Every structure is written in structure tokens, then in C-alpha cells.
Amino acid sequence: MNHDQHNIETISYDDDIVKKFSIATLGWGIGAFLFGLIAALQLAYWPTNLNLEWITFGRLRPLHTNAAIFAFAGNAIFAGIYYSTQRLLKARMFSNLLSAIHFWGWQFIIVCAAVTLPLGYSQSKEYAELEWPIDILIALIWVIFAINFFMTIKKRREKHLYVGIWFYIATIITVAMLHIVNSIEIPVSPLRSLPVWGGIQDALVQWWYGHNAVAFFLTTPFLGLMYYFVPKAANRPIYSYRLSIIHFWALVFIYIWAGPHHLLYTALPEWAQTLGMIFSVMLWAPSWGGMINGLMTLKGAFKELIQNPIIKFFVASLTFYGMSTFEGPLLSIKSVSALGHYTDWIIGHVHSGALGWNGMMVMGMMLWMVPRLWKTELYSKKLAENAFWLSLTGVMFYYVSMTVAGITQGLMLNGVNANGQLMYPDFVETVTKIIPLYWVRAIGGLLFIAGYCVFLYDIYKTIQLAPKSVTVEQVQVTRSGWQEKTDGHRKLEGLGLAFSIMTFLAVVVGSVIEIYPTLSLHKYVNPSETTEPYTPLEIAGRKIYQSEGCYVCHSQMIRPMPAEVLRYGKPSTIEESMWDHPFQWGSKRTGPDLARVGKKYPDMWHYQHMMDPRSVTPNSIMPNYPWLSEKNTDFISLRKEFSVLKMLGVPYDDATVADADILAQKQAIKIAADLEAQGAPKGLEKKQIVAMIAYLQALGQKMPAPKTAEVK
Amino acid sequence: MKQDGLMYFTDTYLTVIGLMIFFGYFLLILFKAFQSSKSEIKHLENLPFNQNEDMYGKQ
Questions:
Q1: Dihedral of CA A175/A40/A691/A585: which sign?
Q2: ipTM, 2 decimals?
Q3: pLDDT above 50 (res B7)
């Protein structure tokens, strides 16, 4: 017998914090899913926007994604990590106070997001929309969580760090790095900032962050939870510990490189796109390593799959993980991306991961954990079964409808006939074609929510069954592994700090290699193609464009493919967005690309389009924006905004910075007069609609005039 | 076409260094993973089971 085992200690785990995070998960989950359902209905039936600025699709969609990722998945991760870490390390969390600050701080961040996003305070960077004070708060709370976690590792009684703990380490380190780098921004006002990154730099940093938010917020922590909760639920150890070692290191090393697959065929330098594509395809192997390890853990216990709803949730979750990690690399191949990018195929792919992999993992984990936390039995196995089948059917409806919609729209948009003309020249006809599928998606979402509500009811009744007075449970633990001589990977697993440093290095290599070259933007910019920066009024309009979330439906990036060039014009260049802080390339086209929309239509067309899109584009599903003709443009803050832009290297002279508001008002008077002459109401010069029109009319109009020789 | 594709591929040494670090490290991990004895692996994979909370939640 080992010497360690004589030292029996009696401790208690902090399950109170696990309960708090569990309840927060369950509560925020319903909010996140309902926001998603309303957004789905808005696309199927535009009047569901209700002409209310706060819940219009452009503002609601960021609220939905932030709630799903940071409120639902985030709280679930923390619940699972706090529960399993204490038991795997045989140690109570380092500090009750830090745990409490972490919990209440995180909930406060969610409330801040829920207030600011509908009000239109947005950095317009996907999954990183929150403004700078909230960004700082996120960093602080994350650091508190990290201190609490790593200090618990330091005081652990079990020397060897189980595979689940490795994934938590990778999550904590990498999310901190991603969030801090992507959030380097200069404040303009208490709720407005501009990122230091611009153009292709911003695009690369944003999608390095965006993709790895999926990787290190929705994948690695969930794999860690899987490695703990699946063996516990199946009551058997993980299928192959050796496979877990290999797939962990391959996964954390490769994932960080894959971000540029979100930018295929864009103006991003070709080498970065190629790297992103290659590493995305390589990612297939380690991803499937995790799926195989999870599913094979049930080898010989498939009777459990029939009888135990928790196992059903875990098996479905792992199957969706396998499916989406097969589809992800597939969509990262340039020729497939040419069809799927900007379409609902991506939305279907994301939801097979978010609802299938994450959602089902959370439900399985909660059904296993809640009875143990509240010292009771699960209220109803039958309800859990019903919840499973309802939510599974919902995800399938969602995934199939969006994949079909995406491929349909992709094929229509790329269709060119034998005469070299677009087969579907009106963008809107590619949208109306898939509206029935939007309804199917909404039904899928409704079914998933119905399943989730049944699950919530089961959990609620389970908690009601809990004994009224529960004493804090004492557990006896022994120190183990400290006297053994180890080598190889097992030695590394006993060295918490060394392991963490190795993990950090694994994620830093790809990050530096991809981001470093684009810091020298001048290498990629053709001086003769350098564009003019936007005027003050155009910048005021750009701010409104960001605030309304136009980027969630409109791209500003024309890809070099025949159909796109025929539809929108020459492919977008690096120079066109070189002064953009932040970039607005977008990732989805529910409406057409806007990179060259400037001067395509008269000002009055834009006015009518923003007031009632269907007055100029029959069958459009775009919401009305009546408040843009009622709310005043914020001219006052333009001087500050311009001084920040100048600081970031945008070539404005001092006079423009000093008179930004005056110059903007002068341009606004001209546009308003033009609108009035064409029949628009009087007195629009101070209204947001005029700034928005100025910005839209400037898109694609800032390139230098062709030289005489070229014109000839 | 190939030249267009490689037009901006100016920092090839960075890519090569990255890939070399990855494959070198991957091979090392592969070697170390299979170096562990069966008894060690058995101990490690059973770490989640050294607890006593399983008396609850039976269905």
C-alpha cells in the first residue's frame, strides 16, 4: 500500500457554487432559445420584428448568440468544471469568495449584455459585440476564475491531472488570450470603442477569435466535461486514455490555426486562407479522436442506451459532435466554401454543434448531476426520455431545413447560364425560395424548446424532492500519486504549471504565425490603390450601421467568383477596407452584399428602402427602420471618434478632426435637401437616416480614380 | 494561377517552423503516450471513480 493512503483527510466540496451555476444555466438557457425562436420567426415572417428597434433582427441575433454561448453554455461549463474539478483533484475550490465573485460577476456581465445589445451598443464583431467596459469586466472575472482554478490545482491531493482537467486548463488559458487580443480597443465614449485592428488585420484577429470561441468555449470545455460525466454515467472508464493524450495535444495545437477558413475567397492574403483550410482539414482527426473515445466508452454497455435517458443525451451529443466536426472541415475546403459560405448551411452547421453537441451534453450532465447535488433521485425517467426525443427531433428539423436552405440559396446565387448571365439576378428571389424552410426551422426550434421545457420541469420536480434540511457532506480523501516516481506524459500530468505552459505554447505558435505577418499591413497594400477614408457624416452613418447590426445580414466582401463578380462587380480588395475599424465583411447574406452599393441607387431609393423595404423591393424580408427618420444623429461625438481614428492611423488632417461635426452637418444638409426635393419629409438633416444614406452611398466609392491611360 | 495563389505567400519560413514544431511535438506525445505501462493507464483512467457521490441519482 502506498504511504499516501495512510493520510486520510475529511473535507467538503463546495457544491453550493455548482448549484448556483446549474440554476443559472437552466434559466438563461430558456432565454437564449426563445431569442433564437423569435429571430427564426422574424426571418420566416418579417412583421415579427414589430417595428421595434430593440428586438429587430440585427440587434436580436447578437443577443441570441451571446446568450447561447456565454449565458447558457458558459454557466453550464462553470457548473461542470466546479463539480468535476473538486472531485478529480480531491480538493475544495481554493476560495469561496472567488467562486462567489466569479458567479455574480458573470451574471452581471450577462445582464449588461442583455441591456446594451438591444439598445444598439455593439462593436459589430461576431460573438464579441459587447462594448469596452463589459470587455474589461469579462477579462477581470475570467482572471478571478483562473486564479480560483489554478490555486485549486496547486492545493490538490491527487497529483495526476485527469484528462478532463487538461481540457479545462486549455480553455482557461486560451479564452483569456483570445478575448484580450481581440478586445484591444480605444474607448471613444463610455459605451463606444474602436478596435486597434483594422481591415484584414481585424478580419483575421476577429475570426481567429470567433472560430476559437467555438473551439475553446464550446468544444474543449465540453470535451473535458464529456471525459468526466460520460464515464461516470456509464460507470466505466474512458475507452482509451492513450487516445485522449494524443487527441488533446493535436486538438489544442491544430484548432488555433483554423480561423481563416471563415475568410476563404476574401481579400485576406492567400497564404493565410490556405493555412486555415489545411489545418481545418487536419482538425478532423483529433476531433474524431474525442468522439470515438466518448462513444467507445459505451462499448459493451449499449443496453444502457436503451434504458438510460442520460446515456441517450450523451450519445446524441457525441454523435452531433462527430457530425459537425466532419462537416466543419468539409465546409473549410475552398470549393465547398464557395457554395456554403454566407448561406444558411453555416447556420445549420453551427446549430448541429450548439443544440446537438452542447445542448444535449448540458442536459445529460444536469440530469446526472442535479440529483446528486440535491441528494435525491431523478423525478421522472419518462419525462427525461420525452425531453430527449422532442429536442432531438427539433435539432434534426433545424439542421436539415437549414442545410437544404443553404445549398438551395448557394446554388441559386452561383447559377450562371450558358450566355454568361446570372440565372437569378434578383437576390430576393433566392430568399423567397427558402422561406418555407425558415418555417420548418422555426418549428424545429419550437420542438427543441418544448423538449427543454420538459427537461426543466423534470429538473424542477427533482429539486422539489430534495430533503428539506441537508447537512454539508463530509468526504474522506487521501493524498495520492505524490510518492510515485513517474516519467513520460504521466510526469507532465503531475506538473500543473509545466502542463499549463506547454498548453499555452501550443496555442501561441499558430496564433503568432498567422497574426504576426498581417501586422505589417503595408506589405499587402498596393500604394496606387490606397483608398480615401470616410467623411465625418459617413462615419456617423457607419456607427448606425454597426449599431443596427446590419452586418448580420449583409456582407461587404465580393469574392472572386464569376457569379459574384456578375452580381456585385470586381472582387473586393485589401485596400477597400484598409481604414475600417472595425471591418464589416460579415459572414452571412440574408440580404445582398453591400461592398459596392454606393451610387447604385439614388438617395430617395435608400430612404424608401429603410422606411419600408417592400416599397422598392417586393417580397423583401428586411425589417422596417422607421426610427432612423425620428432619431437624431450624434454629431457631437464625431470629433472624439475622428481623433481616435487618426490615432489608429487613418489619414485625417487636423482640420477634419477639429471640425468633424460641422463637416458632417454640412454634408447632411445637402443630402436632406436632395431627399426633400424628391418628396421626402422636410428637416431630415439631423436624422440618422441621412447619415446612414451617406454611408451606404460611400460604399465602394473610395477607390482612387482610374488613371487616364487605364481609362483609354 | 499558382503564382497568383502564392503572390502573398511571403513568410513561408513561419509556416514551416509552425508545422515542424507541431509534427515534432506530436511525435513526442505519441511516443510518450505509448511508453506508459498498462497499470499506470488503468490508474489514470479510473481517477473519476475515486469518489463516493454515486449513492444518489440512481434511476
A1: positive
A2: 0.80
A3: yes
A524: left (phi over 0), alpha (psi -120 to 50) or beta: alpha
Distance from CA of A322 to the nearest CA of B (A): 22
Smallest CA–CA separation between B36 and chain A, in Å?
A: 7
Interface check for A54 against chain B (CB to CB < 8 A): the answer is no
Measured CA to CA, the distance from residue A619 to residue A418 in angstroms comes to 28
If you search the block for the grid coordinates 487618426, which residue do you land on?
A646
Cα dihedral sign, A439-A440-A445-A446: positive
DSSP state of A176: H
With beta carbons less than 8 A apart as the criterion, state whether A343 and A407 touch: yes
CA distance B59 to B53: 15
Q: Where does residue A111 rank: exposed (0-12), middle (13-18), buried (19+ CB within 10 A)?
A: exposed
Give CA–CA dist A509/A253, Å, rounded.
8
Q: Residues of B near A (CB-CB distance < 8 A)?
A: 4-12, 14-15, 17-18, 21-22, 25-26, 29-30, 32-36, 40-54, 56-59
Cα distances from A460 to residues A26, A371, A378, in angstroms, run 10, 11, 10
* Coil/strand/helix, residue A119: coil
Q: What 3-state class would DSSP assign to A632? A: strand
Q: Hunting for cell 445549420 — which residue is that?
A: A348
Q: Do B56 and A493 touch (CB under 8 A)?
A: no
Q: Which residues pair with A192 in a beta bridge?
A: A189
> Which cell is A702 given?
473610395
Distance CA A405, CA A381 (A): 36
Coil vs helix vs strand at A300: coil
B54 → chain A, closest CA residue: A372
C-alpha grid cell, residue A199:
481591415
CB A593 within 8 A of CB A556: yes
Which tens digit of pLDDT belongs to each residue from B39-51? 888 888 898 987 6
- What are the Cα distances from residue A499, in Å, to A85, A345, A613, A649, B18? 16, 38, 56, 40, 20
| Cell digits of residue A34 | 426563445
Q: What is the pLDDT of residue A58?
A: 98
Are B59 and A377 inside 8 Å of each other by CB? yes
Amino acid of residue A464: Q
pLDDT of residue A374: 94
Alpha helices, DSSP H, located in A45-73: 57-66
- A482-489 long-range contacts (CB < 8 A, ≥24 apart) are A482/A4, A482/A159, A483/A2, A483/A3, A483/A4, A484/A2, A484/A159, A486/B40, A487/B35, A488/B32, A488/B33, A488/B35, A488/B36, A489/A245, A489/B29, A489/B32, A489/B33, A489/B35, A489/B36
pLDDT of A711: 43
Cα angle value B10/B14/B18 (rounded, 5°): 145
Contacts of A1 (CB under 8 A, 6+ apart): none
pTM for this structure?
A: 0.94
> In this predicted structure, what is the pLDDT of residue B29?
83
Q: Which residues of chain A have pLDDT under 50?
A: 1-3, 710-712
Cα A470 from Cα A371, distance rounded (Å):
13
Which residues are A557's β-sheet partners?
A: none
| pLDDT at residue B56 greater than cutoff 80 | no
Kindly state whether A140 is in contact with chain B, defined as any CB-CB distance less than 8 angstroms. Answer: no
